[in-house]
Amino acid sequence: MLSQQFSLSDPASQWVIVNKHRPLTPLQFVPADLAQPRVQLAASGEASLLNSTTAGAAEKLFAAAAVDGVTMTLASGYRSFQTQTATYDGYVSTRGQASADTASARPGFSEHQTGWAFDIGDGGGACSFEPCFADQPAAVWAKANAYKYGFVVRYPWMLNEITGYYYEPWHLRFIGVEAATDMAKRGIGTLEEYFGLEAAPGYP
C-alpha cells in the first residue's frame, strides 16, 4: 500500500484523474503555481509552463536524460481552458466531432489544463506528435526511466479502450515517484486501472 494518498478529483492533486468520464471541477480550473521549468523549451507562452511540482520533477527528468546523452524538449505544457477550446474546435471544424474526440480532449477534460502533464520532443522535430515518435531516443528513454522521477506515459500502446486516447509516447504525467514506481513494478499501464476506476473510452 502506498504510504501517501491524494485526491483523485481535486485538480490541484497529483493523482487527479482527468478523462472522458471525469471532467475537471471546476471546468475552467487554473493552477495557482504555474512556473517555467529550467529545461530545453520547444514551446512558448502558457505552453512552456507547468505547475511548480511538475516543473521541479521535469528538471530532474530532463537532466537525467541529458546525462545519458538523450536530448529532450518541453513541446507542450499547460493549456488553458480557452486554448483547449480553440484547439478542440479546430479539430471539430476540420474533422467532425466524432473524429475530433479521438484526437483532442474537450475543454475541461484535458490533463494539460492541470499543469501535471506535458508533451516531450527530441529537439529534432522527427516524428513530432506522430506514432513513430515512440522509436525516437527521447521517447524510448522516457518509457524506460520516467517513473524514477514520478512520471508515467499516460496513454500507452493498445490501451485506448481504457484511457480514451491512442498511444501518445510523448505525453508524460506526474503522479509522484512512489506511485509511478509502484505502477512500473506491477506492470500496470493506466491510471484508471491503477486507481480502480472505470474505463473511459468515450464521452458518456
From TrEMBL:
Superkingdom of source: Bacteria
InterPro entries: DD-CPase-like, VanY-like_core_dom, VanY/YodJ_core_dom, Zn_M74/Hedgehog-like
Gene3D superfamilies reported for this sequence: 3.30.1380.10
Pfam families, per database record: VanY
Limits of the D-alanyl-D-alanine carboxypeptidase-like core domain: 49-176
Protein name: D-alanyl-D-alanine carboxypeptidase-like core domain-containing protein
Organism annotation: Arthrobacter gyeryongensis
